[in-house]
Design a protein that fits this description.
With 467 residues, this protein is an alpha/beta fold. The chain has 2 domains: 3-181, Rossmann fold; 186-224 and 276-463, Dehydroquinate synthase-like, alpha domain (Up-down Bundle), CATH 1.20.1090.10. It contains 23 helices and 10 strands. It is globular.
Length: 467
């Protein structure tokens, strides 16, 4: 058992009071196994969770061949009644797809067994929550960090929304299946895992700006206002180790694939421990979500989540590096006040950028919008504490050059064009992504200080995203 396997087991089914933040942490997933032939445990684990009733097994055309047929046989051989629901063709994690699955659930079903990766798992967790029934996941690829998470990312009315749902009670990832999955999926998984330094820096930045630097009587604008180092520490070593093994992951070396899968599962658990997605999703993910939304609106096929996130990481980490080199004297409060937009002005910008999706985006952005009296006080506190902020964030951040080297080593796209986006697509995502979530990130800080637009071309050029 690797160190990370042992670490995963330390968290399963545990509840404790955190000595760092003072909050209650808990993980309700009781069983996780990553290894060769992990699926062999499926029948025993399923019967332990749901000893009676019919089983609804969810799969798509690819995962049915990879693991669905065997999973069904194992359950039937154990004497269970199994109904199979197959998503044909390419399936997206959207409300329409969720409704199709929801329509298959009957009162006699006692558990959902999801066989797949990101999309199948998001849909299954979402529907299991809707029907208040347990969910078990059979992972088929090391492609993303959602297996053991309490998050389902689903497009609702064209807007990418993060739904907080109960985590699965068990996760089985058969390494034989994951290792033989298309290599693009593992490349995507590593890219997703490498977001953690940036997302945790965004979380810490939000805590500093919205909580620690405020007057004690001031209200925070988002519930994510207390940075806890535990979720960050859970993934930190695994992310470094996986980044160092990028070439071995690309070569499908079994020990490297196991390391990647465990790192992704630790990342999913970190969100459960935190009680929100901030340890694994910041501004870099918003850039990816922007593309999901716009692509869905235009009827374009979606691209791998991790690949999109990889481009977002390069943009955010380069922006961090750029701003870290600035000084408080570079900013004048009277100029910032002059450029500050009213909420109505911001709404007009959102309508111009998001069109028919504007209402949902405006609802999110309005939660973090501040008028100038409050924003001015916030920016003054930021500039007064500039060195402290960057000294703190510097302990978390990874240089963009290291991110790009790992993306290249694993064979993941590192430019907009390589992923099928135009340079203007890249510029638009960088400019507009911050509006779609209420959480504060480096994209918001840059916009508040007039840096986002002014340095847009320089940052994207420095990152290599426009090459």
């Amino acid at each position: 058992m690797s160190d990370f396997s042992a670490r995963i087991q330390e968290y399963c089914g545990k509840r404790w009071r955190c000595p760092d933040c003072g909050g209650e942490h808990s993980v309700t997933t009781v069983f996780i196994q990553v290894g060769p032939d992990a699926t062999a445990r499926l029948a025993n684990v399923t019967c332990a969770i749901a000893p009676k009733g019919r089983i609804l097994l969810v799969e798509d055309e690819n995962t049915r061949v990879a693991a669905g047929d065997r999973a069904c046989k194992l359950l039937v051989d154990a004497g269970r009644q199994v109904d199979r629901f197959l998503y044909p063709g390419t399936v997206e994690a959207d409300i329409e797809s969720a409704r199709k699955l929801l329509a298959q659930v009957r009162d006699e079903h006692s558990i959902i067994v999801a066989v797949g990766a990101g999309t199948i798992n998001d849909l299954s967790k979402y529907v299991a929550d809707q029907r208040k029934m347990p969910c078990l996941l059979v992972g088929t690829a090391a492609s993303m960090n959602g297996y053991a998470s309490a998050v389902a990312a689903v497009l609702a009315d064209g807007v990418k929304r993060t739904f907080w749902v109960p985590p699965p009670l068990a996760v089985l990832v058969d390494l034989d299946v994951a290792t033989n999955a298309p290599i693009e999926l593992a490349r995507s998984g590593l890219a997703d895992l490498m977001a953690k330094p940036v997302s945790n820096a965004d979380w810490k930045l939000a805590t500093l700006v919205k909580s620690e630097l405020r007057d004690k009587g001031g209200k925070t604008t988002h519930p994510v206002d207390v940075f806890c180092p535990v979720p960050y520490r859970m993934v930190h070593e695994a992310e470094i180790a996986c980044r160092a093994r990028a070439k071995d992951i690309n070569a499908r070396k079994p020990d490297a694939m196991k390391l990647l899968t465990e790192g992704l599962i630790l990342s999913s658990l970190s969100m459960v421990v935190a009680g929100h997605s901030a340890p694994a999703s910041g501004g870099e993910h918003y850039i990816s979500h922007y593309w999901d939304m716009v692509g869905h609106m235009k009827g374009q096929p979606h691209k791998l989540h991790g690949f999109q996130v990889g481009l977002g990481i390069l943009a955010s980490s380069t922006l961090y590096a750029r701003m870290r080199g600035m000084r408080p004297s570079d900013f004048k409060m009277d100029e910032l006040a002059r450029k500050h937009r009213t909420l109505e002005e911001e709404k007009e910008r959102i309508r111009g950028a998001y069109g028919p999706l504007s209402d949902g985006v405006i609802q999110q952005f309005a939660q973090k919008y501040l008028d100038w009296d409050r924003k001015g006080a916030e920016l003054k506190a930021i500039l007064d504490n500039w060195n402290r902020i960057w000294d703190t964030l510097g302990e978390i951040l990874v240089p963009p050059s290291e991110i790009k080297a790992a993306l290249n080593a694993v064979g993941a796209p590192a430019t907009a064009v390589a992923l099928g986006f135009t340079r203007d697509d890249m510029r638009d995502s960088y400019r507009w992504a911050r509006y779609m979530r209420s959480r504060y990130t480096i994209l918001d800080l840059a916009a508040d200080l007039g840096v986002l637009e002014e340095t847009l071309e320089d940052v994207l050029q420095e990152s290599g995203l426009l090459d």
